[in-house]
Amino acid sequence: MEKTDVVIAGGGPTGLMLACELRLAGVRATLLDGLPARTGESRAGGIHARTMEIFDQRGLLENLLPLGRPVQAGHFGGLRLDFSDLNTRYPYALAVLQSVIERELDRRATELGAPVQWSSPITEIRQDDAGVEVEVGEPHGTRRIRAAYLVGCDGGRSAVRKLTGIDFAGTDATVTGMLADVELTDPPAQPFFGHRSDAGDFSVWQFEPGWYRLIVQRHDRVLERGSNLTFEDFRDNFHELAGTDFGMHSPRWVTHYSDAARQADRYRVGRVLLAGDAAHIHYPAGGQGLNLGVQDAVNLGWKLAATVRGTASDDLLDSYETERHPIAARVLHNTRAQTAISRPGPHTDALRDIMSDLIDTDQVRHRLGLMITALDIRYDTKSDHPLAGRRVPDIALTTPGGDARVCELLRTARPILLVLNGNDAPLVPQWHDRIDIVRAASAAELWNIPGVGDIPAPAAVLLRPDGYAAWVSDEPGNAGLTEALTTWVGAPA
Ligand SMILES: Cc1cc2nc3c(=O)[nH]c(=O)nc-3n(C[C@H](O)[C@H](O)[C@H](O)COP(=O)(O)OP(=O)(O)OC[C@H]3O[C@@H](n4cnc5c(N)ncnc54)[C@H](O)[C@@H]3O)c2cc1C
Predict the structure, then answer these.
(1) Is the pLDDT score of 479 beyond 90?
(2) DSSP strands (E only) in 222-331
């Protein structure tokens, strides 16, 4: 029987990102996908600031930026949300197709030694105390693989979730979104606009020269999951709402989706874990799902790698569910709110007017912007320092190796003890094999933390491989550092 450290089911954005993280940490990862090949379809049309920062941390952003287009604003239930004053190096959404993101992640996963193995659907799972065994239903027979862990990144209908008996509770569909990527003979004057009516909404988005993404949102009908939506059906629905079809033709892709919102009640059962859409589904309002999956993968990767290597504390792997379950629950919550304020009728119109006024105020716009972009995430590190548990801002540093930004220090995906401006470097020799110590100078006297404001630059920070602060000190010395290292890096050597 074939052996590996981690089997990943699903070569979508979540599975690809997880494979890259595990390989960076030196762990063997076998990445399986049930499809015969990549479809080239693009559900997502963009990513938000925190995902750009995460891609930057791993050196993936520089290729993606020129393949996308910065868009200054996102939306909340269709109400414009300006991102330009968010304190990040990337205060905008990047309009970039999911197929392009997958292509870049595919390239990186292959380079790191974990290419997607296509036509390899997982069909059976058995686990015991020492490992997990999967059956893969390949075209010419069954293949069996044994691993220390299995991660289901196999999408909303996850076989891994079902075979493991994990409950997926939530709310049923009330709305149908219909989407077609088409060419237009008679395009509208504006390249991007949306319109609300009593029967539903429609929007037009010129994604690239030559083709448009048209979307219809119907509040008066719910299409069965798995039912077929033809191009002609789409055109009729669009025409009914818009009064024109803009001469749509040559469809590349037609699909429908719903606002069913469900979340796995557990992200881990023994040696089986879930991430991405396998763990949570929701309406694509605000464009958050792919971001959420990539961030699940980056939270899980280093924890799982340390667990496989045997260096992690007992609780480290469980902190994946503790940290990420509430984050997805918040996304489900905000997408339900966005559906509610998108419904037709005079009552919702009144609510939208009031919301629209509120969003014009800096505080509300800023708060919603931080939520949609996930820049305000705070994990519990048992410290009340305002930076602890939050993502460390991308400060410019001067290090003995030259100038570097915080995101650039994280390229190796190792924990980093960053000691600033000549403060005494805390001595922690028992962890030197597992962390990098970087002594750096920074001219930034104040660090801006989204959702907090400016704080004085700290004396030292322990960065987790995902870029969040595990320990922060404003004083020279290492009070509390040993405990933080034991929790997040593992027992002393
Ligand atoms: C219309 C629409 C627009 C969207 N727009 C955005 C957006 O702008 N921004 C955003 O962030 N998100 C957006 N999303 C959400 C985003 O597309 C998903 O959240 C994202 O694809 C999830 O990635 P994933 O890797 O978790 O799952 P998936 O992309 O679903 O990948 C799962 C993979 O698992 C494979 N698989 C399935 N079963 C098995 C099996 N048994 N064994 C092995 N492999 C298996 C599948 O073939 C697939 O390749 C949108 C979604 C929709 C529907």
Answers:
(1) no
(2) 248-258, 261-264, 268-269, 272-274, 280-281
pTM of the model: 0.97
449, 455 in Cβ contact below 8 A?
Answer: yes
Listed by start position, the domains of the chain span: 2-170+262-373, 176-258, 396-488
Sign of the torsion angle spanned by Cα atoms 70, 76, 82, 87? negative
Q: Whose CA is nearest to atom 38 of ligand 1?
A: 154
Closest by CA position to 391, among listed 8, 33, 57? 57
| Whether the CB of 276 sits within 6 Å of ligand 1 | yes
Number of Cβ within 10 Å of residue 383's Cβ equals 17
CATH architecture of 2-170+262-373: 3-Layer(bba) Sandwich (3.50)
Digit-coded pLDDT (tens) for 380-427: 999 999 999 999 999 999 999 999 999 999 999 999 999 998 877 677
Residue-averaged pLDDT of the chain: 95
CB 119 within 8 A of CB 34: yes
Name the residue at shortest CA distance from atom 51 of ligand 1.
43
Which CATH code of 3.20.20.140, 3.30.420.40, 3.40.30.120, 3.40.50.150 fits the domain covering 396-488?
A: 3.40.30.120
Q: Which residues pair with 53 in a beta bridge?
A: none
Q: What is the DSSP string of 96-157?
A: --HHHHHHHHHHHHHHTT--EE-S--EEEEEE-SS-EEEEEEETTEEEEEEESEEEE---TT
Q: How far is the CA of 62 from the centre of ligand 1 (A)?
A: 23
Q: CA geometry: angle at 472 spanning 408 and 56, to 5°?
A: 20
Q: Determine the average pLDDT of the residues in 53-77.
A: 95
Tokens encoding 198:
């009593």
Q: Please name the fold of domain 176-258.
A: Alpha-Beta Plaits (3.30.70)
- The token duo for 257 is 């989706």
pLDDT tens-digit series, residues 147-175: 999 999 999 999 999 999 999 999 999 99
Length of the chain, please? 493
The CA 111 to ligand 1 mean position distance, Å, reads 22
- CB of 298 shorter than 6 A to ligand 1: no
Helix 13-24 vs helix 98-111: crossing angle, to nearest 10: 30
In this structure, what token pair is assigned to residue 417? 């003890």
For 326-384, what is the HEC assignment? HHHHHHHHHHHHHHHCCCCCHHHHHHHHHHHHHHCCHHHHHHHHHHHHCCCCECCCCCC
pLDDT tens sequence across 434-466: 999 999 999 999 999 999 999 999 999 999 999
| Same CATH fold assignment for domains 176-258 and 396-488 | no
Q: How many CB atoms lie within 10 A of CB 111?
A: 11
The token pair at 171 is 């709310």
Taking the C-alpha atoms of residue 440 and residue 225, their distance in angstroms, rounded to an integer, is 54
